[in-house]
Structures are given as C-alpha cells and as structure tokens.
Amino acid sequence: MSRRSERKTKGCRAWIITDGKAGMEVQVAGVAQAIGANIEIKRLTPRGIWRLLAPWGPVDPAERFGRDGSQFAPPWPDIALATGRLSIPALRALRKAAPDTYTVVIQDPRTGAGTADLIAVPAHDKLTGENVIHTLTAPHGFSPDRLARLRAKLPEDIAPLPAPRVAVVLGGPNSVYGFTQADSARLALSLASMASLGASFLVTSSRRTPSHALEAVLSATSGAGRVVWEGAGTNPYESWLAHADIFVVTADSINMTGEACASGKPVYVFEPDGGSAKFSRFHESLRRYGATRKLPETFTQLETWAYRPLDSAAQIAGEIERRWRRR
Q1: At the fourth CATH level, which superfamily is domain 144-294?
Q2: In the chain, how many H helices and how many E strands?
Q3: Residue 165 β-bridge partners
Q4: Class of CATH domain 4-141+313-324
C-alpha cells in the first residue's frame, strides 16, 4: 500500500484556487492528488483594476464572495490550495470567512509568509518563515505509483525503439531565455552525437518551441529510430516520462525539468542563451542533488546514473498532513 493511500487527509474536501494557467494549476493539482482530497477547482478571472491590484488588493466584487450562488460560498473546504498572484485575494478572504480551513500557497505569494498556514516554494526562491517549506522542484502529478502503472504497459510505437530511448522535451523562449538559431544548432550537434552512438528518440515540443529548433532536432535525429509528437492526437508525454532511459530538457521550463526528475533516470539540461540568478540556483540545486547534468556539446559515450526520484507533491502533502490538525 502506498503512503499516499494511508494519509489522514484522504477524502477531505479541498478547493484549488487558480487563475487557470495550466502550468501553475498542474502543480496544485499534484499536491491535491497526493493528499487524497476530493477536489473542486475555482478559477478566477478578475477584471481591470482588480486584476492589477492582485495579489495585494481585494477580491473582484463580481465574484460575490461568500454569497449564495458564488463559487466561493459555504460549505467551506477543509483545505484550500492556491497558486498564482490572482488567487491570493480570494485565499485571504477565505481565511477570514472560514478560519477552520487550512490554507496552502504553492509558489511565493509575494504578500509575505503570513498569507497562508503553509507556503511551499522551490529551493531557489528566497522566502523564509516557520510556515515556509522548500522543495527542489515544483510539485506535479507524476508520483512513483503513477509512473509504475505507466511502465507496466509499453506503447506499441515505443516498443521497437532501441535503448537507450532519449526523451527530448523542448520548451522555447521566455522572459529569461532566448532560443536563437545558434542555440538550435548547438542542441542539434549534441543530439546527432547521441544518435551516432545508437540512441533512439522521443521528441516533443511546446507552443513556445521555435520552428527552427524543432527542425534542427528532427534533422539531427533523422537517421535514428524515433517517435515525434507535434500536437496531434493524444499527448504521449506521461508515457514517455515512464519509458525513457535518458532525458534532454531545455532549461527554460522549471516544470518540465522537475517532471523529468520524477523518473530517477539521467536528465541532461540544455541551456539556451540567457538565464537568470533564479534559474541558475534551480539548475545548480538539481545538479548538486545528482539528478541533472549540463548537456555536453558532443557525446563520446552515453552515460547513465541514478538518484532517488523527486516527488515534491508528496513532500508538500506530508507537511500538510503533519501540520493540518496541529495548528
């Protein structure tokens, strides 16, 4: 029996409060699943000035907080989990209206450690406090149990691929990293050397991936066995997390890097041009842990290493369980 199925929080009522951004919502959902809660999702779309004032301002009056017919009305939840600055006004209002509700914020709320009963932030963030816990990665839903279930069935399109199977998980430019054609050429050179050593590939891109990056990757792996997903049909990402032997992820996505580290398999991180102190702290912490290494310019051999898979959702869920009834 898994530790998750034994939690005292199993079956409690939990609200997930978000602004609907998929990358943030998946983090909170992973924690809610880890505590075994019955989940209700509350998505906020504040207007104009109310949006600008978040996270410091009040709830948009259009939400009619606490009134009949509002999504924020009794019966109040046992636990509320929030993420994203637009969720914080609603969480503060909930703490006032329902003091028995245990409140949790995933990521720095930017309004101080007193915003919630528990705040979980990545280790590369600098927020501190008695109610603040730090995790190496962002939480996600890829628990050891889930990955074990996925590993029990090898998809037909993956089965013929020779080992090692290399999952190439492509992000793209963001406010911190660029992704130039020179970056794409560097990535392609490294992947081509992996192909020359007998690797096969599982290639997936995101909406942010530049066309030149995907084209470079496809050219570099054209002579190898591979499966490519470009957005059509069922997303195979979760299956690839379970069945890849090696991962190559781009440094721009903290979520994708953390999810790859749930595998316990080697994770190489490719750094496009750019970066920041915050991202550098994140990637350095994973290298120190032993989960990731920088992607070499070229490979002369395909190395392997192992580490304890990272499951930040379970870590946070354990802290919620420990603290919930002991306030």
Answers
A1: Glycogen Phosphorylase B; (3.40.50.2000)
A2: 10, 12
A3: 200
A4: alpha beta
